[in-house]
Write a structure and sequence with these properties.
By secondary structure, the chain is of the alpha+beta class. Helices cover about 15% and strands about 30% of the residues. Strand 20 and strand 21 form a beta hairpin. The relative contact order is 0.14.
Length: about 550
């Protein structure tokens, strides 16, 4: 059976990576490990080609003005002509405050001309860092060059023009030394903005975005698209020997040109519908996420909501899940949420695995859907500015915690905190989005992964328990017995066993002493009484 499955997966890999050529959008990378696309902005014949970060987690197209600090002056958008940026409220009425870039004004498109309109504050979190922006919104012309299809041009689509942009850590700004060394401080650097490729429900522009206009122009070819991202240039050398860095692409294949497993990817269950956020995000459910042979979901849940965000380079996890993963990896982490440092002689790293269906209840006749998909964690390793190898795994900020404390794992909610697959995770996979069936499919780029890029030899050793401790594998810790569940018992910290509490021991000793004294006194009283009785009997 294993050999049959191996051959099927090899054939599936070949088919997934050799999709029949359809319209193709080329994808590159910036220095912060984020995928990028080139967009022509401005009227036909007078357009400016700018490089934008590809984001599958939002729908708005955002452009940086010169002086934002994110792009070089030569690569920023030239917004000197008011005629290009005209805000027409009647055409682009904002219907709701929905975007992941949350607008403080639910109607940011004002009646004034675009250049003179009041700026709005917008922000979102990427890889644990808060991206703050200030800008305006209006309509303009834009286009995209597609291989295998005519160039796409939209004469008037909504755009955000950002005049101020900054990236800072969500929790604290006191990490200056680390921030100067880490390339992730330059998120969105070297680009002129963000190209939103999420569902239109994520924008307040009532079903209109540059991405949605392009999909409409492609017709049925856009029912499915496959995202093939190579590893970024600064990825681990272990990875480069297996899948060399290069240019990526988005191939629009339609429903008929790409088959399901075993000739194609394994698809997830259909995502939830009826909510603007769920409908707009590329969302799916992962089952049994594990590393080093340990189920990280453990006793919390059998599955968890997962989304794709290509503007995020890293794998981003809820805090409780992050703690569990790091407990099994050969890394040194700090409490300031900085990426963990790999320990010496700890390579290659182990595999992160997950399934898209419950292995206990696969669809009848479709048991293959519960096969395990593997991502070597080496694909998440990058080198910082000072030559240190870091693991690109981030913690998601706590939205429902108290102060700096996140809620305990048992109170975790899928709606409040999701797993996010960033661009480096997708570098190990071929990712297909089925827009008609609302599913996401994956295929490993290599099957099976060679030992040169994935090994469990360097997993953190299991904790050694003593006394009455029990081993809790998700956190790789020994849990002390709950002595408080027993009357008069307390934990002995040396032997890690439940013993009588000191108070009880003192009470017992005291009781014994009292009883002993009482016994002696009673015996003495008895003898005295006996002597008196004897004396009385002699006198009689």
């Amino acid at each position: 059976f294993d050999m049959v499955r191996f051959r099927k997966r090899r054939w599936a890999l070949f088919c997934a990576l050799h999709v029949e050529a359809g319209p193709t959008l080329k994808v590159g990378f910036n220095g912060a490990l984020q995928p990028t696309v080139d967009v022509d902005v401005g009227p036909s014949g007078q357009s400016q080609t700018v490089t934008l970060v590809l984001s599958l987690a939002e729908a708005d197209t955002t452009l940086f003005e010169g002086g934002t600090g994110a792009c070089q002056a030569s690569s920023c958008i030239n917004a000197s002509s008011p005629s290009v940026y005209a805000c027409r409220r009647s055409d682009f009425g904002c219907v709701a405050q929905r975007s992941p870039f949350q607008a403080t004004d639910p109607y940011p498109c004002l009646r004034d001309s675009f250049v003179n309109a009041t700026s709005e504050q917008i922000s979102r979190v990427v890889s644990g860092r808060e991206c703050d922006a200030q800008g305006k919104e209006g309509g303009m012309s834009a286009g995209l060059s597609l291989t295998g299809a005519s160039p796409f041009f939209a004469p008037d689509v909504p755009m955000r023009l950002v005049s101020k942009f900054s990236v800072r850590h969500w929790i604290s700004l006191s990490r200056g030394d680390w921030m100067r060394q880490l390339k992730l401080q330059d998120l969105f650097s070297g680009t002129a903005g963000i190209f939103g490729a999420g569902g239109v429900s994520l924008t307040c522009r009532n079903g209109t975005s540059l991405w949605s206009e392009m999909l409409s122009g492609l017709g049925s070819a856009a029912d499915r698209f496959t995202l093939n991202l190579p590893p970024p240039p600064s990825v681990s050398s272990y990875v480069q020997n297996v899948t060399p860095p290069g240019s990526g692409e988005i191939v629009f294949s339609g429903q008929d040109q790409l088959q399901d497993w075993p000739q194609g990817p394994t698809f997830s269950q259909q995502k939830q519908l009826g909510d603007w956020l769920d409908e707009g995000m590329y969302e799916f459910v992962t089952y049994g996420m594990s590393t080093c042979g340990v189920d990280l979901y453990g006793n919390i849940s059998s599955n968890w909501f997962t989304v794709i965000d290509t503007s995020d380079p890293c794998l981003t996890l809820p805090t409780w899940l992050y703690d569990r993963m790091m407990a099994h990896l050969p890394v040194d982490c700090t409490p300031d949420m900085a990426p963990c440092v790999l320990r010496p002689n700890s390579r290659p790293l182990p595999i992160l695995s997950f399934a898209l269906w419950d292995s206990q209840e696969p669809p009848p006749g479709e048991e293959y859907k519960s096969i395990v998909i593997q991502v070597p964690l080496e694909y998440l390793v990058f080198t910082s500015g000072n030559g240190t190898d870091l693991l690109c795994v981030s913690q998601e900020p706590c939205w429902n915690g108290v102060g700096d404390q996140c809620p305990p794992a048992r109170n975790a909610s899928m709606q409040d905190s999701k797993v996010t697959f960033g661009s480096m995770v997708l570098g190990a996979l071929s990712t297909t989005v089925d827009r008609r069936n609302f599913t996401v499919g994956f295929n490993q780029k290599v099957f099976p992964w060679p030992a040169s890029v994935a090994s469990s030899d360097h997993c953190t050793a299991a904790a050694s328990c003593i006394g009455q401790q029990t081993y809790y594998s998700p956190l790789n810790i020994c849990e002390d017995p709950d002595c408080s569940s027993f009357f008069f018992m307390a934990l002995d910290h040396k032997t890690r066993t439940c013993v009588w509490s000191l108070e009880v021991q003192a009470l017992l000793v005291g009781t014994i002493i009292v009883l002993l004294v009482a016994e002696i006194f009673a015996q003495r009283l008895y003898k005295q009484t006996l002597n008196v009785a004897r004396s009385a009997s002699r006198g009689a």
